[in-house]
Amino acid sequence: MAVxxxxxxxxxxxxxxxxxxxxxxxxxxxxxxCVYRLVLKTPSGQRxxxxxxxxxxxxxxxxxxxxxxxIDFVLTHIDERVDIAGDVVxxxxxxxxxxxxxxxxxxxxxxxxxxxxxxx
Length: 120
Prior knowledge:
Number of helices: 0
Strand content: 35-45%
Helix content: under 10%
Distance between the termini: 57 Å
Order of helices and strands: EEEEEEEE
Largest sheet: 4 strands, antiparallel
């Protein structure tokens, strides 16, 4: 996989490196006094899910400056399908014959379903 460094502050300067078998990388050619955003990408340029999603680093100009180290990512994988299970508990009231349950993402309704209680 590739680690890409882009500096919006410095005219979209971009450098990248491919990780080795140990996940190590070294990005050369970064300009001093520029803030770079580091992200993980596939060799074809597609963003990878990771934690954290990105890092911001600034390269300082110093004689004999040491490399910036320990900028590590953890790859995460999100399946296309996720099963969600839960219980709806009605406290001190009888359950209604039917009710609606909604699934939200960032305060936006993604899916809603009506639950009908089984007849006894």
